[in-house]
Specification:
It is built from 8 helices and no strands. By secondary structure, the protein is mainly α.
Length: 184
């Protein structure tokens, strides 16, 4: 007796009807994640289409023994939204320095300062032990939750939380960041 195939397994097998079922079943989930991460930005529609393409492209990677279809789809959607936000933040503005108002030039100076701070954080990370570095990379850069990191690295959840907290405290201490000072 064979078990009934999931929608993703049917997509991976090339069943065209499964694609429509996938859209019907999961489009609300994907749209809610897009609105959560991107707001009502025009970018959300493109993001949803990208997520659907990503799901279809990776349907064969779905393993029902590892998790549910909803989790697999939500994880892909969440990661694509985070990627899109990061890409949006990295996109350089195109302008001529002669046309830029004084405040824009000040903002460019702030960007140089931020870049230097990022370099300092990267140097501090490189001085940390490999496991701390890996956990912080997965948390900060990759956007994984503590639970996902624990599962991925086969570590207890409490260990991951502790290492993230200690790692961030170490970075703060190394960079002499005073968390009691806030912008007014």
């Amino acid at each position: 007796m064979t078990a009934e195939l999931t929608i993703l397994q049917r997509i991976a097998a090339g069943e065209q009807a499964a694609v429509g079922e996938c859209i019907d079943q999961y489009q609300d989930l994907i749209w809610s994640l897009a609105r959560r991460y991107l707001g009502m930005d025009f970018d959300a529609e493109d993001a949803v289409q990208d997520v659907l393409i990503e799901i279809w492209s990776n349907a064969a990677r779905f393993d029902p023994q590892a998790g549910t279809e909803v989790t697999f789809i939500a994880t892909i959607a969440r990661r694509r939204m985070i990627d899109r936000l990061r890409k949006k933040k990295r996109k350089p503005g195109i302008s001529n320095i002669d046309d830029a108002p004084e405040s824009s030039l000040a903002q460019q100076g702030d960007a140089v300062t931020e870049y230097a701070e990022v370099e300092n954080v990267a140097e501090t990370l490189n001085q940390m032990e490999e496991q701390h570095r890996q956990i912080l990379r997965l948390s900060i850069y990759e956007g994984y939750s503590h639970s996902e990191i624990a599962e991925h690295l086969d570590l207890p959840l409490g260990t991951v939380k502790t290492k993230v907290r200690r790692g961030l405290i170490h970075i703060r201490d190394q960079l002499n960041i005073d968390i009691s000072v806030q912008d007014e």
